[in-house]
Fold this sequence. Notes:
The chain is an alpha+beta fold. The protein has helices spanning 4-13, 62-74, 83-92; strands spanning 28-32, 38-45, 50-55.
Amino acid sequence: MARVPALVERGITAGLIGHNDKQGDPTIIWTVDDDGWIYEGRITTPTQAIYHGYPLLPSDAFAKKVIARYTEYVYTPGNTHLLFSLEQAMERYA
């Protein structure tokens, strides 16, 4: 639980967000953990930005889209420290 805010921030800054609802909160946020797991958070209470989250299964085809967008983020200056998480995700969701 202590790592959740940092993972949410990672997903948002990496652009791993779905469309916004009327209140401006993203309806879906994805993030990539250091160990390569991709998590999806879906909004449950838009007016309070409360989400529920779960890991994507390794067989989930949508993981490829998340990895593609995350790859662009990791290879921008200042983000290469996240390379290990990208490599782990690519292996987990191969």
